[in-house]
Specification:
Elements (H helix, E strand, L loop, with lengths): L5 H12 L3 E2 H9 L9 H10 L4 E5 L2 E4 L9 E4 L2 H6 L1 E3 L17 E6 L5 E7 L4 E3 L2 H6 L7 E8 L4 E6 L7 H17 L5 H9 L8 H12 L3 E3 L5 E3 L5 H10 L4 H15 L2 E4 L7 E6 L6 E8 L5 H6 L2 H11 L3 E6 L5 H10 L2 E4 H13 L4 H7 L6 H35 L5 H9 L12 H12 L6 E3 L5 E3 L3 H16 L4 H4 L1
Parallel strand pairs: 6-10, 15-16, 16-17
Antiparallel strand pairs: 1-3, 2-3, 4-9, 5-8, 6-7, 7-8, 9-10, 11-12, 13-14, 14-15, 18-19
Helix pairs in contact: 1-2, 2-3, 9-10, 9-14, 15-16, 16-19
């Protein structure tokens, strides 16, 4: 259970998604992390975000971060020494219209909020053309003479404005604006669009007589990780992918080292690990904890994004990873990369006792985990420090193949008994084994081990399953009607996939 507040979790979720979200969707993500004791949790989340100055409502039910609003803070003001000394802004001719709702001589309070959500209470005197109360904020932002601030309107009825030091804005503001507009186009259409459709929509707003905007838009679509080119040569949103495909995409298309590390942490969280950020190096490594009743273990995870070079290898904090391993008593240190390109990485990892995994290892695990989740005990096989990564993956595949074989055998047993029930044909153990051995579905090319069938029959006969009943004469029948069989079978499947002592039970 996290100790973060609901508002803090909402902030983290929006920060991670990089775009506004509906409060119901935010609530869904929060509930995966923290329990909200309320009949309608989404109402609680919506109310708390409304009371927190870090958030701003873009439209009904849609929340974003106040710091994103700097794109709308387009009223520039150059600071003088008097402004800095007295914490004052003068209402110039282009600022006055934004405060013209107040005409008399009274000094009234208005609110400004900065990029971090901090509120500044200021005093407006429209007749004297001054707004004061920024002295401490100017100091905090380390503003100097001739530095510029930007002001924008957040909520006129509540008298809330946005204020930003211009030097806080990155140089690609314009690009981010257009990127967000492209996102809005796709989000509104709720389906993939061709480049021409996106371009046509943008040029309704922006002239492109020289064709310069075309290359600019193409560059944004290719660089922004929120967009995805489909097989049909249309542009889609990564948000539309299911969880498995989104993890694949983010791992393989991370453009920055910190994005790759973050994608790895999301992947291991998807597997069921508890993720702990390394305080001093959250963008370079994290700890994946497998919290089990017994045999708990931890992994130190780092990564090198694709096309890494010698400088990247040297920049890996090998000593810090070993210190972190000692701190949490982790079982192993693992570095993931798309491919093992350089022998220098292999040599250095060997010297440091660090395991190297290519992303192809995660491909298999993600695919199988999406079908039926691996237990954390199963995944311990995949990351066993006593074997090399290739051998670990072979062992995990062998275990999953064994599980699939058992699952296939269970389904054949149940189908055979269902068929016998429909035909009103008595079925004993010998007849069952004979029918299964002749089944076309059992295409293993080897004989069925009778003890395995008997063991499965024994398990399916016991609680909590109780699927099969054996009479005194040895006749085997199903105890549930067909419409309930599948639900019970799913329970059996979960039992098999998470059984620690597989060999003793099947």
């Amino acid at each position: 259970m996290t100790r973060k507040s609901i508002a803090d979790l909402a902030y983290d979720i929006l920060e991670e998604n990089h775009h506004p979200m509906h409060y119901r969707r935010i609530t869904e993500k929060i509930l995966k992390i923290k329990n909200i004791k309320a009949e309608k949790p989404h109402h609680v989340v919506n109310a708390l975000m409304g009371a927190d100055n870090r958030f701003v409502k873009y439209q009904r039910g849609i929340w974003g971060l106040i710091k994103w609003k700097y794109r709308e803070a387009n009223l520039s003001y150059n600071l003088t020494s008097y402004c800095l000394l007295n914490g004052t802004i003068f209402l110039t001719s282009y600022l006055k219209p934004y405060f013209s709702w107040h005409f008399d001589d009274r000094t009234i309070e208005i609110l400004f909020v900065d990029s971090e959500g901090e509120l500044i209470t200021a005093e407006l005197n429209y007749r004297k053309k001054t707004i004061s109360g920024f002295k401490e904020w100017f100091k905090k932002k380390d503003l100097k003479v001739n530095d510029s601030i930007l002001i924008g309107l957040v909520d006129k009825t509540k008298k809330i404005y946005f204020i930003l030091a211009e030097k806080e804005i990155s140089k690609d503001t314009e690009k981010k604006d257009l990127s967000d507009f492209i996102y809005q186009i796709l989000d509104k259409e709720n389906k993939p669009l061709s480049f021409f459709q996106i371009y046509s929509e943008i040029t309704k707003r922006e002239d492109d007589d020289a064709g310069l905007l075309k290359d600019y838009i193409e560059n944004i679509l290719e660089e922004d990780s929120r967009f995805l080119l489909t097989d049909s040569n249309q542009w889609s949103l990564v948000d539309w992918l299911d969880e498995e495909d989104k993890i694949y995409h983010n791992l393989y298309f991370a453009k920055k080292p910190e994005e790759f590390i973050h994608s790895l942490s999301v992947c291991f969280s998807y597997f069921g690990y508890r993720i702990e950020q390394v305080r001093d190096n959250p963008q370079k490594m994290f700890v994946a904890h497998a919290d089990l009743a017994t045999k708990s273990y931890s992994l130190i995870i780092s990564g090198l994004h694709k096309n890494y070079n010698l400088n990247d290898i040297h920049s890996v904090d090998w000593d810090e990873m070993k210190k972190e391993k000692e701190r949490v008593r982790a079982d192993s240190i693992i570095i993931f990369t798309e491919r093992l390109l350089l022998s220098e990485l292999i040599s250095r990892a060997g010297e440091e006792g660090v395991m190297l995994y290519e992303l192809s290892a995660l491909d298999y695990i993600i695919e199988q985990h999406n079908l039926i989740p691996f237990s954390l005990l199963d995944l311990r096989i995949a990351f066993n420090p006593l074997n090399n990564p290739q051998k670990n993956l072979v062992k995990l595949k062998q275990k999953r193949d064994y599980q699939w074989d058992n699952w296939l055998l269970i389904k054949i047993i149940v189908n055979t008994l269902q068929t016998a029930k429909i035909r009103n044909t008595p079925m004993d153990m010998n007849y069952l084994i004979k029918e299964i051995s002749n089944s076309e579905k059992w295409s293993k090319g080897i004989g069925i081990e009778q003890y395995k069938i008997k063991k499965i029959i024994s398990i399916l006969s016991q609680e909590p399953f109780g699927l099969i009943e054996s009479s005194e004469s040895g006749i085997i029948t199903l105890t549930y009607p067909d419409q309930l069989i599948q639900e019970k079978i799913n329970n059996v499947w979960q039992f098999i996939m998470h059984e620690e002592t597989r060999q003793d039970n099947l």
